[in-house]
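Sample intake sheet
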Amino acid sequence: MIDIIPAIDVIDGQCVRLTKGDYDSKTVYRSNPAEVAAEYEAAGLKRLHVVDLDGAKSKHIVNQKVLSAITDATGITVDFGGGIKTDADIETAFACGASMVTIGSIAITQPELLFGWVKKYGPDKIILGADVRNGKISINGWKEDSDVELKDFLKKYIDAGVRKVLCTEISKDGTLTGPAVGLYGQLMQAFPGMYLIASGGVSSMDDIKALDAAGIPAVVVGKAIYEGRISLQELKEYISKQG
């Protein structure tokens, strides 16, 4: 059974989507993220992925008030990412109601800091963000490419105790062209104990079913919901069939 996790990406306090991480491609869909989160909860969804895109760009949390508004208005489990660079940032995220945080850039630039957070908060609280472009990890809101290969990156942190990984294929993100099922299948074969969250390209329920059939534990869905490609009713029915 695949976990379906809707995404709320935030710029200036509003729900937006980018295409391939390009801030100039921003589309504003809704003005009230907490209201959207409540709709997801009403549809039976249990998880939510919130991304502070202003934070990712600024390299510190910016939209913590949005996070607080979502967690105050709902009982949905939120993982929060974007701009978490310091102990103060991660404490802010948890204080504002996040159940988990997604950490990406720090894993490249300050690995010892991430190792320390995994030890301090435990592997259930930390999701490793693996944003990949051309097989290499990208950082800082996808504005910078590193020279680190995806599988080498994952092995380093899984060996250190990380169990949850959010992998976004940047070339697919926001394109509605279908997810990188083959890539995710290869990662699950290489790291069978990993809780892998697939992200990028989901355009239909068939895409979710394909990931489910491939044994992918979880999937993030964003633009497809906003664009009406996947309805909340469809998600509700799929979840109920899974029991």
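Comment: DSSP finds eleven helices and twelve strands in the chain. The mean pLDDT is 94.
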